[in-house]
Model the fold of this input.
Amino acid sequence: MQYSKNQLFFLASLRILIGWHFLYEGLIKIFNPGWTSKAYLLTAEGPFSSFFTWLGGSGLADMADVVTIILLIGVGLALVLGAFEKVAAFAGIALLAMFYLSHPPLPWLDNAGPSEGNYFIVNKNLIELAALGVVAFFPTSHLVGLMYYFKKQDSGSEKVGQHAAG
Done:
């Protein structure tokens, strides 16, 4: 897939900015020793609220915290560095879908979303989820990122092997 310079700039910027957001959210949770997802899960609303409140009240809540942090940091690093972009994008989509489904901004719910802003069906999680879909299906890491350098090294070693065989 070929992109114009402007397309490449904005697609790579989108990937890196989303990656930075994920990375920062994961790191800030590590540096805040009191952080836990329990209150977030226990206040879940919407059609899947029983699953999220069960998770928040179960012994699995601590594991959910660890998994959330690992996914946030892993997705963030992969997107910022431009490695395993598609896998990272789909993992990010899954995580954002869980965030969205735990607190969907539906008008008939009491606590429809985060405290800042006013949302109606569409919130930041859903927008970032869609943006990760763009990142997954319009990849840039093979042009701007670690995958570019891996690809260059692989093609260089293949040429060396061809010369040795010939």
Remarks:
- The first helix runs from residue 5 to 31.
- The helical segments are 5-31, 38-42, 49-57, 61-81, 85-102, 124-137, 146-165.
- Residues 160-166 have pLDDT under 50 and may be disordered.
- The chain has one domain: 5-165.
